[in-house]
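Re: weekly structure request thread

Next one in the queue (75 aa):
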Amino acid sequence: MYRDIWNKLKGGATFINGDLFKCDSALFDMWEFDDRIRWLMPRMKNDAGEEMTFEELKASRLEFRKRMGEKPGTI
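Done, posted below.
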């Protein structure tokens, strides 16, 4: 997918992968994060053959977020 995107960019263009972000409100941030987990669950099963509970996947993604140093992008 990313190769297709890069091939379509014109010289000097920038691609921003903005699928992760952090809201100013902790309440909205957790709502968005939970919504992303619900979206991700069937994809993990279909694409990777991994079946996890909501809480397992959420814990995994929270650990990933922690390892990445809380660096979501903003536009």
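The chain has one domain: 20-75. The radius of gyration is 15 Å.
Next request, please.
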